[in-house]
Fold:
Amino acid sequence: MIFKQSKILITLTFVALILLVLGCYKKKELSDIPEISLAGISDSEMQQGYFKEDSMEIYIQVLDGDGDLGYLGDTAESSTIFMVDSRTGNIAEQFSFPAIPEDKIKNGLEAELRILTYTTCCLFPDNLPPCSVQAGFPTDSFRYDIWLVDRAGNKSNTISTPVIRLFCN
Structure:
């Protein structure tokens, strides 16, 4: 009888401790303005090329309090993720975030995006033709500055990849 009471007491104490810990746990409040961070890149070097000759993956952590990312219905083709080439300051790539129906979002959204991006051309000074082989310029380098926009028009913070090296030969 004493063993059984002791076992019940230990079990109740354990349950009380779990409830105490869970009661003190505060759910992280997420902003309705998307927040992104760079989780990594698959490679920091690529061979230059015009189309699909080389590629890399960029991994991005996304937090959004109301989860209103991606477009639903007729606007499904709208771009929501933007990547700027640091060499030109122009948007080099734009993608659509996969649409997530609002009824699937309960307490905000925490996700990791995997963006597959293909190689680009080396850019040279003095108006030398891009994507050519120039003996004096064996490599080029750049980074991507990345942000996204939600359905409400809220723009996330901007993140940058590490420097990406292009081999120009």
Helices lie at 2-24.
